[in-house]
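BUG-255 | component: ligand-complex export | severity: low

The export step for beta-D-glucopyranose jobs runs without errors, but we want the raw record kept on the ticket for reference. Input record follows.
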Amino acid sequence: MDLSGKSVVVTGGNSGIGAAIVRSLAAAGAAVVIDYVSRPEDAADLVKDITAQGGRAVGVEADVSTVAGIDKLISTAVDEFGRLDGYVNNAGIENRHSLLEVEEETFDKVMAVNLKSAVFGTQRAAKRFIEQGAGGVVVNISSVHEDWPMPGNFTYCVSKGGMRMLTRTAGVELGPQKVRVVNVAPGAVNTPINASTMKDDSLRQKLENSIPLREVADPAQIGDVVAFVLSDAASYMTATTVFVDGGIMQGSAGL
Ligand code: BGC
């Protein structure tokens, strides 16, 4: 995959799927802005590794649930790397609860981190792409739960469902300006968000048995697909979703 000369922002880029995306993009030659809200040392480690391999990356502390945080990331990309070619809305949180349990404060927080950040990230990145005049790509990291109900994971599912329609509507609106918007929808991935399932052998087994490929994804398996979607090899893809889920959404209930 060739992303050389491209400058890309990855939100929540210092952990889990985000860190794997950062590594895949840097390996493909992109210069990367790594957003984080906590654990600056993880961003610093990524920058160190990438720089040691001859790549370019910078860590930036910014809260993407605010437009000011998003603008800070985009201006860093422009100041450091001269332009913006891609923006990956990856930051997300999961707080499991049912519809009947959810409280206003939790709902607002999950929606702000997962969906509001992606809406304004898409908007701000698109404005920059249009200003530059050469198109650009927004990748939204949704989930199989953009389309697949998960009882007990209510607000997360609502936020991911919102991302599904964000991508479709934005992709249609921005197509004429050659701005592509694509969702990458992971299934179960071995990241901090799934730590409690992965630590519990019986839960892990149950999860793996529900996946046709019989394994939880390594984050790199998501990162490489994001690199492809950002590249010119995917230049005709927009307003759609790429599922990277080991087949989980089509899986049978087991024998
Ligand atoms: C969620 C995980 C869940 C997986 C498959 C992901 O989006 O973060 O908690 O295991 O979907 O259902």
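Assignee comment: Attached the raw record above. The longest strand covers residues 179-186.
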